[in-house]
Amino acid sequence: MARGRPFVAGQPRPARSGRRAGTPNRVSQSVREALAGALRAKGGQEYFERQADDNPGAFMALVGKLLPIEHSIDPDSASTVAELLRQARP
Question: How far is CA 70 from CA 59, 80, 86, in A?
Fold first, then answer.
């Protein structure tokens, strides 16, 4: 049983229909909250530092996802990953 008016191809959607732009999906939000809780339980920053040593490939993949797409940084001028990330902030 359909609620409201059915969709008609070529017609604009009714005003105020759907989710507002930028509103996170409920599932995505709950997954982010669960991940944040798991990270806190594992030690937060210290956990990431251990992963950088124990699993550098996965850690650098995560760093690559967090860095801006186009940004010039000098990896030779940074002695730690934290300094690299500070350089990358706009």
Answer: 20, 20, 15
